[in-house]
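Now for my pick.
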Amino acid sequence: MALLAYLDSIKSRDPAPRSRWEILTYPGVLALGLHRVAHGLFQARLFFVARVVNHLSRFLTAIDIHPGATIGRNFFIDHGFVVIGETAVIGENVTIYQCVTLGGTDPANGIAGKRHPTLEDGVIVGSGAQVLGPITVGKRARVGANAVVTRDVPEGATMVGIPARPVPVDAGDYAKPFMPYGTPCSQKYDPETQKLELLRCEVENLRARLNALTDDDKQRSA
């Protein structure tokens, strides 16, 4: 049964629920169910009724999914306060955490058509991330918490920062079928911060050597 398979797919990504019944209380599950109804109405060009269902869903779940968004199987929103735009396309087995926006381009720039992101199969988007514009996030890519993504993301990449940039991930973490919040929790340091720290240490080392050479010259002169 499709519903049971969907609930089991959520349980495999979230250790908290103790039963399928508990998963049915999740706001993300209710929001997706109401979106299926709204999307059907939207495709039937019953735009006003679709918007009514959309507003009811937002009121009940704090999740705003435009009726025009296209969403694949086993989509999971973990907690609420998520915004998904009209032309967003979401593949299968995608996971989004709280406070994520799949936003569009500036409506004042005169560009019509596809304005929102495409998330391919298996993508994970961490808390607070903003994925903006008609870009594509490749299969099994991971977007870390609070990242701002404005360019295409290669398949399998892990993106962090503002603006988002790819970072290396341990092969053991990369091989896992699912990584909560999109990035390994054991990662302690930001790679860019590490580079700055290495440069700072190198400058201090050069400064110490320069001071030593200066002291030698002074002693010779004396």
